[in-house]
Amino acid sequence: MAINNRLYLNSKQHAERIADLRQRPSDLSNLGTSFLENEVDFVALAKTFDLYSPGSADTPAAIQEKIADCLAYMETHGKPALLEIKTL
User: Is 75 exposed, middle or buried (0-12, 13-18, 19+ CB in 10 A)?
Assistant: First the structure.
């Protein structure tokens, strides 16, 4: 499973803390820490490793459906599968 929050959260939080400590605006904390405009495509990346992926999901219903798909695939083929869950 790949949890895609479209950013390096730890780095963003660190940038926010440093900005606060230095009494600077923290609105630039996304610079170099986020992929909001050009996100990583974990489904395509999985395919480069010859892994099965049913795609990405961002709602509870879609997540449940795609987890079932991954489990069925793994049980049938004995190979790993990747589900990308988008959280933002």
Answer: exposed
The answer to whether 57 touches 84, Cβ cutoff 8 Å, is: yes
Task: Specify which residues 7 forms β-bridges with.
Answer: 34
User: Are the CB atoms for 47 and 72 separated by under 8 Å?
Assistant: no
End-to-end CA distance of the chain: 16
What span, in angstroms and rounded, lies between the C-alpha atoms of 65 and 53? 13
Tell me the per-residue pLDDT of 28-71, one tens digit each, with 9 for 90 and over.
887 777 777 778 889 999 999 999 999 999 999 999 999 999 99
Residue 78 burial (10 A CB sphere; 0-12, 13-18, 19+): exposed
